[in-house]
Amino acid sequence: MLLSNCLFRLGAAAILLSNRSSDRHHSKYQLIHTLRTHKGGRAVLDELEKNLGLSEWHMEPSRMTLYRFGNTSSSSLWYELAYSEAKGRIKKGDRVWQIAFGSGFKCNSAVWHALRTINPKYEKNNPWIDEIDKFPVYVPKVAAIVS
Length: 147
Prior knowledge:
Elements: H1 3-7, E1 29-36, H2 42-52, H3 56-69, H4 76-86, E2 95-101, E3 107-114
Antiparallel strand pairs: 1-3, 2-3
Helix pairs in contact: 3-4
């Protein structure tokens, strides 16, 4: 069993950060800006979509990650990024905003600048790559309980 599977559940939530220029040719992204924040379940996603005016397309990676892996806490961010990569959505020059919310006042955000176009056929370690053609799936909305 891989140590990363033990630490990060399904083994897809690790990233190596470096400030060495010699590592640049290995990089997919450059960190532009960060502040701290994990989004939780469906209700948090619904409110995030509504309040930030995001489309279903923008929310698809989050919703499909929640559907497939459940609430995996902060590692959800990396599953969502991997989903976008597997769908071929990340192009050179794109900015990717990762935002997450937790209990209390926890909120983190990172803005990444894509250093190259991500070609899904070369992403062998992507946790979505073997099943990406099956997604998105329809997930029915849950009505609020009115008392």
